[in-house]
Amino acid sequence: MTSYTPTSENKFTFGLWTVGNIGRDPFGGPVRDVKSPVELVHLLAEVGAYGVNFHDNDLVPIDATSAERDHIVRDFKAALSETGLVVPMATTNLFTDAAFKDGAFTSNDPKVRAYALQKTMNAIDLGVELGAKIYVFWGGREGTETDASKDPITAIKRSREAMNFLCEYALDKKYDLKFALEAKPNEPRGDMYNATTGHMLAFIETLDHPEMVGVNPEVAHEHMAGLNFVHGVAQAMESGKLFHIDLNDQAFGRYDQDFRFGAVNLKSAFFLVKLLEDNKYDSSRHFDAHAYRTEDYEGVKDFARGCIRTYLVLKEKVAQFNADKEIQALLAEINANDSSTDQYFGKYSSKKANELKAQTFDREALGKRGLGYERLDQLTIDLLLGVR
């Protein structure tokens, strides 16, 4: 039996806002006391995390003085040094303060848009100071409740202008930094711009520096829209744009639940881990999730350990899947190729096209062939249930 003890190679990270969540929701107040960033760093070290990520105001309150900011950062650095935790990613809170009630980069108020850029530049400086190599952008308020309020083409242009400006800022400062854009279909806005990972991938190609911008897909955000998260991540990986990932879980079609990784859709979580591990994903495995509101801080530790343990268990199951002779034989049969059509694939030529048009196919035989997917899926279920 594997010990399921995390190592630095796993790169498991949590945000200050995850283990620091105090259990407030729209229908009830906090159930846990506020812990300081230093306390949360030590909590994460206790559960075996590799790193800690933060929004600017998770660490430094929005109204802190310069002296207060320096004191907080000094204490945080000391906690990182004491525990050995690192800061792989940072981001900006552009959604909590009332100034951003109609968005940040897409706000109709130019003063808000300018303030959002200022706040983000300062937050980028803070992230880089603490070692972050990835900077995430989640447009929590970038959207509408009524399309009468904003022209969507104007909003897209404002988003592009902001990202181009901030890319130039990072380049001008010679920061070793990449940006990762995080999509969400709705909540807290009625509808949010660039609602899915696919939207973000298309948007990135319109930027002045697409090479330094990728995506940060989140399980819950895609499941809210009823999408297959594994497919979205695969598209990002195939295009070389998976810079970061947010792992959690979510019942399809619900509000943003941010459950412990693997808590709801275990088979989907398995195929996600398989995709990441088989393709040697090497960035942070970031758990952007929250403990149940029923928990005290011992329960928060249970939650964090559970995220890590589930990933490692599923990683072991991936290795079993890849080594299972019956499963692999079935996959080989499913993907069998007698090489009779190899000459038709690859780069186009008129000769190849003409030969393919002249080829005769037994359409009825193609349609009658059973593919064995039921058996394959049940073998996968058996493996996950521990009976193989």
Descriptive notes:
With 388 residues, this protein is an alpha/beta fold. It folds into two domains: 8-323, Divalent-metal-dependent TIM barrel enzymes (TIM Barrel, Alpha-Beta Barrel); 325-384. Helices cover 46% and strands 9% of the residues. The chain is built from 15 helices and ten strands. The strands form two sheets. Strands 8-6-4-3-2-1-10-9 form an eight-stranded parallel beta sheet. A two-stranded antiparallel ribbon has the order 5-7. Strand 3, helix 5 and strand 4 form a beta-alpha-beta unit. Helix 2 (37-47) packs parallel to helix 4 (66-83), helix 5 packs parallel to helix 6 (152-172) and helix 9 packs parallel to helix 10 (266-278). The longest helix is centred in the C-terminal third of the chain and has 27 residues, at 297-323. The chain is globular, with a radius of gyration of 23 Å.
What's the short version?
The chain has 388 residues and is of the alpha/beta class. It has helices spanning 16-19, 37-47, 56-59, 66-83, 110-129, 152-172, 197-204, 219-224, 229-238, 266-278, 297-323, 325-334, 350-358, 363-368, 373-384, and strands at residues 12-15, 51-55, 89-91, 134-138, 143-144, 178-182, 191-192, 213-215, 246-247, 285-287.
